[in-house]
Amino acid sequence: MSVAVLGLAGVALDALCGEPKRGHPLVAFGRLAEGLERRLNRPYEEGAMGWRSHGVMAWLLAVLPLTGLAWLLSRLPQIGWLVEVLALYAALGLRSLGEHALPVAQALRGGDLDLARQRVGLMVSRQTSELDDVGVARATTESVLENGSDAVFAALFWFALLGAPGVVLYRLSNTLDAMWGYRNARFERFGWAAARIDDGLNYLPARLVALTYALLGQTRLALRCWRTQAPQWDSPNAGPVMAAGAGALGVSLGGPAIYHGELHTRPVLGEGEPAGPAHIEQALALVQRGVWLWLLVLALGSHLYA
I need a labelling partner for 40 at 20 to 30 A (CA). Which of 120, 168, 209, 214 fits? Predict the structure, then answer.
């Protein structure tokens, strides 16, 4: 069965079912990761936390056995194709992205700023209690663009390249980065490997996503913002994605934000009017159109190389 058909099946399953309400495999994986971190993230000298080597060991123990299992199951006769589809479904977050973002836009349209702050607080790690309408819309739009890359397109990329083991490898690595990839006393050393591996796995997909956003939006502006603004962003992968996405939408994103009580002075991304609820909806539509474009490319590629 072609990768395009399997990819379409995984996307369709996500659209129909969304994330499992109970028994999500990533929840169980998160518990495994927490247990490994408790056992292996030990002080290496007084006042300092974590060994890089222990972080590498924890990453290997968490990711490689499950990736190998996915490879074995995907090779089983008769049901291997089903394993492929289920692996992609478990890694995708397209429907979930809309389920989190659209209620923020609805709350803003209804004038309920407190509810909008609460809902965007479920999507982002920044402090949301003092955000105004524009700040809430900006944070949500940024989250849609960035998580569209991480939770949708990168999963599709690694699935297209390596099938079930590829998408499992990527999604588990991305989850560990979200759990361990912080620059603080607890994780700066232990989480170093998780952060660097996730950066590597996302490098090419992020740039393909930036190109996708540009092609499906205000192309010239998106390409200019990508070229001039992305290098100023602290993340090598989020910069291109968010700069191109903001340019594609013709909206101004970025700027100062408070994370864990500290003010971070971030550069402005994009160009145009301040963010509003319409931009949240437009960002989600941009991601959805991009998924259809990628599936079309996969179908054409499968046909040419059949």
Answer: 168
